[in-house]
Amino acid sequence: MEWKMIFELIDPRLLAVVAACWVVGYILKNTPKIPDWSIVYVVVVLAVVLTSGLLGWSIESLIQGILAGAFAVFGHQAVKQAIKGADEK
User: Fold this and answer.
1) C-beta of residue 50 within 8 angstroms of C-beta of residue 29
2) Which tens digit of pLDDT belongs to each residue from 32-71?
3) Residue 52: C-alpha distances to residues 17, 20, 32, 43, 89 (Å)
4) Is residue 35 helix, strand or coil?
5) In the chain, what's the furthest Cα-to-Cα distance?
6) Measured between alpha carbons, how far is 55 from 78 in angstroms, rounded to an integer?
7) Contact at 8 Å (CB) between 72 and 58?
8) What are the helix and strand counts (H, E) for the chain?
9) Sequence-separated (6 or more) residues with CB below 8 Å from residue 28
10) Do the beta carbons of residue 69 and residue 32 sit within 8 Å?
11) pLDDT of res. 41
12) Can you give the pLDDT at residue 6?
């Protein structure tokens, strides 16, 4: 799947939500008492809440929120793995 296709799935108004989720995920990752497994759930719930606030509550905003949260988590992992791969070489 190409990045362009993924960008087309998410409403452009939600790029700020993706950025906010990325920052919150980073903060949670560096918080000692927050287990790593819970971060993805917190980020997705936050994305759904923020998306619903921006677009209004609907099934579409729920789906858009899940996509925005998932995109934030995926983006973080892609960068993390790219850095890890570069360090191994």
Assistant:
1) no
2) 999 999 999 999 999 999 999 999 999 999 999 999 999 8
3) 11, 14, 30, 14, 43
4) coil
5) 47
6) 28
7) no
8) 4, 0
9) 34, 38, 39, 42, 43
10) no
11) 95
12) 66
Single-letter code of the amino acid located at 85: G
38, two tokens: 């819970």
Q: Which tokens in the block code for residue 43? A: 């980020």
What is the average pLDDT score of the chain? 88
Q: In sequence order, which residues have a C-beta less than 8 Å from that of residue 18 and are 6 or more positions away? A: 10, 47, 68, 71, 72, 75
Q: Which among 45, 51, 43 has a CA at the least distance from the CA of 23?
A: 43
Under a CB-based contact definition with an 8 Å cutoff, are residues 73 and 23 in contact?
no
Are 74 and 48 contacting, i.e. CB atoms less than 8 angstroms apart? no
CB-based contacts of 31: which residues, under 8 Å, 6+ apart? none
Please state which of the ranges 1-5, 30-34, 61-65, 79-83 shows the lowest mean pLDDT: 1-5
3-state SS, one letter per residue, for 42-62: HHHHHHHHHHHHHHCCCHHHH
